[in-house]
């Protein structure tokens, strides 16, 4: 965001696209396990899918109302929180 002077909404949209591609590839990589009888809790899959869809709709609505400067700060705070959580998880 800072180096390329990219608006936060483009950065977060790009991040979501990359995560979606990553999830699709990971899902394709699991096809042999599904074929071998991997047990999937479809209720959990449905809840995550519904939550993602609702979050996407809510994020789109909020993104149109939040100024780019505030969105950049919020995006940075979110990234720091995820990094701190990942570090804490690895250390514990």
Rg (CA only)? 17 Å
Helix content: over 70%
Question: How many strands, which pairing sense, and closed or not: the largest β-sheet?
Answer: none
Number of strands: 0
How much is the average pLDDT? 85
Total number of helical segments?
4
Description:
It is a single chain. The chain is mostly helical and 92 residues long. It is built from four helices and no strands. The relative contact order is 0.11. The model has no long low-confidence stretch (mean pLDDT 85).
Summarize the structure.
This protein is mainly alpha-helical and 92 residues long. The protein is 82% helix and 0% strand. The protein contains four helices and no strands.
Supply the key terms.
92 residues; extended; 0% strand
Topology overview:
Blueprint: H1 8-29, H2 31-35, H3 42-65, H4 68-91
């Amino acid at each position: 965001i800072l180096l390329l002077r990219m608006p936060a909404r483009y950065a977060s949209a790009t991040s979501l696209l990359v995560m979606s591609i990553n999830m699709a590839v990971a899902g394709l990589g699991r096809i042999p396990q599904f074929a071998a009888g991997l047990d999937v809790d479809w209720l959990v899959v449905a809840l995550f899918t519904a939550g993602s869809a609702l979050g996407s709709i809510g994020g789109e609505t909020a993104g149109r109302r939040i100024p780019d400067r505030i969105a950049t700060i919020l995006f940075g705070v979110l990234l720091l929180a995820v990094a701190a959580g990942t570090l804490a998880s690895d250390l514990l």
